[in-house]
Every structure is written in C-alpha cells, then in structure tokens.
Amino acid sequence: MSELWVEEVQDGTYGMKWRAKELLFRGKSEFQSVEVYDTVSHGRMLLIDGLLMTSERDEFVYHEMIAHVPLFLCPKPRRVLVIGGGDGGTVREALKHPEVAHVDLVEIDGMVVEAARRFLPSTSCGLSDPRVSVRIEDGVKFMAAAGEPYDVILIDSTDPIGPAAPLFGPEFYGNVRKRLTDGGLVVAQGECPFYRLDVQKALAQVVKGVFGRADLYNYHNLTYPGGLWSFVVAGKAPRDLSAPDAKRVAALQPKLRYYNLETHKAAFALPEFMKRGLND
Ligand code: SPD
User: Fold this and answer.
1) What is the pLDDT of residue 1?
2) 156 in active site
3) Tell me, what CATH number does 153's domain have?
4) Which residue of 46, 135, 152, 158 is 20 to 30 Å from 111, comparing CA positions?
C-alpha cells in the first residue's frame, strides 16, 4: 500500500492524516497553495495552504448545513450569493431550491474553481448551471460595491488567515448588511468550538455589532479538526430560527442526506461550554 499520507496539522501540536492513493494536483496561485489528493478512505480531498477544505466522503454535511438552514428559513429565496466556496458544493445545494433564480459565486482564487471542476465533479457540478455566475474576484471588494440585494448570503470561507481574514471583520459585515434584502439571512462558516472558541466569539461579536443579534449552530463534523463545526447566522429582521418551512423541507428531503427538520432544530442547541465561552 502507498506510503503517501495527507496531513493537516493545527497549531503545530495536533493533526489528522489520511492514506493517499495519489496526488492529483498541486499548484501555487498568487494567493495560496492548492492540492487535490485521492485518498483510500475519504475519496478526493481539496487542501488550501495545507488545510483540508473538502472531502468527497463528508462534504455533503457541511454544504447542506451552510445552505439549507438559511434557505428553508427564508420565505422566497430568489437571489443567493456565495462568497468563497470555489469548490462549488454550497452552490450545488442552493440550486436544489426551486425558488432560487440566480446564484453569484464570488471566489478570489480561480485555481480553486479550476481544480474543483477538474477533480471534484460531484461537488462542483452546479457551477455550470445556467442560474449560476462564477466571478473570480475578491469577495471583500465585491461586497463593498453597490448592487442588487440578495435574499441569502453564504460566507463559505477558508479559515481566518491569509486572504480570508477580512471576511471575519466588521467592515465586511457592514457591507453584507447593505446587500441583504429586508427578510434576508447571512450565514458564515464559524470554525470549531473545541479549538477556536475565541474566533467564534470574535465573529459573533462582529456580526452582533452589525445586525443586533448573532446565533450559532453546529453540525457533527468528520474531517475538519474537532468533532463539531459551527456556523453563524444573522439577518435584519427578527426570525424564529427553529422554524424552517416544513412543506418545502418535505419536498426536498429525498435530495438531502444530513439536513432534515430535526437536524435543523437540534443544530441550534449549543453545548454549555459554548454558551459560556461566547457570553464570557
Ligand atoms: N478548516 C476548514 C474550514 C473550511 C471551511 N470552508 C470550506 C469550503 C467548503 N466549500
């Protein structure tokens, strides 16, 4: 068996590794390194700067939970914006909603989109849908410009280092607010509560500062470091976050593998250490 391993090491003190069959792609863009491996146990994996972004084995969980929680809460989600998410998984999930007429994907790094189109077809398949515009642009600048508002904005970023760092700041969220419809919702990937509670707290404070409220929800995570992964959700109008449109959920349920009414509601039940850490 091959002795090639894909490794993600965090903070120089712990990590995970997966036995690889082969390295399919390695490139260096002007922003970051991009790699795709084929692994024995988790299918193909995309890494950016040595950090795992998506694996074929469990990508459906993250992508369903970032997209469907806000989409089923939003009564008529016509226009969707995805910032980051160049692998296309979040776009694919948004397109499952028949109400969605248009999706803009704004990804800073064309190499990520090219690698996903070439090596991760089941994740990136939605990128060729006629309802989708793929824009290789800086999401921070895109958000600062004026334009038509969106019903749902999904911040599918990498971790808050490198080009993604401004996507966690107050100026960016001020602009997100301007580009949301009155009933719209924003969801951002919010890192791991076990390892990055400080980052979560800072992000929640930024979002709360802009929207007056920020809620976190979790899913059970397989391949990112830590057993839970979080998202932050906010909107201009107050909303019962535990009440997705049950009729629409039932209609899409055959196409969903993790998301259902129960996982939606349960996702907002935060463990005590998170509640305390976020409110300290
Ligand atoms: N530590 C990894 C965090 C990555 C979150 N975004 C992944 C992009 C998947 N579409």
Assistant:
1) 77
2) yes
3) 3.40.50.150
4) 152
